[in-house]
Amino acid sequence: MDEARERIAEAYRRDGAALWRALYSFTGDRAMADDALAETLARAVRRADSIRDATAWMWRVAFRIATTELRSRPEHQDTLEQAYEMPDPIPELMTALRRISPNQRVAVLLHDYADRPVGEVAAVLGCSRGTVFVHLSQGRRRLRALLEDSDG
Q: Is the pTM of this model over 0.85?
């Protein structure tokens, strides 16, 4: 395996599971998370020689693919799959994540969960760093309110 493809493989080994969980949290759909991750890896292998930071590239591309897929779905199909087994309180968190805006969801997941820098989140969202801070603040506040409501 050449050096460029080895960097892709290493990034996937290190971040693949976390990336899939973030995609699932973003989309609420296991198959969509699987497809977005698979498409990201296929594109990464094809473009390995032109990718400088494999980890950042994979996170950015995976969320762009997932966002495109979400936009193509009819709004009435936007539900969580209840068959997926997760320990409590994850189902409540998944439901709360689905109730915040897509930009807030991406910002919170990438920054707070995946520990990606604000500049990288801005690149994924196609906005300024300041806008990312707004999405983070509003998203966290909304999640806190939603999760507190579900505790009562």
A: no
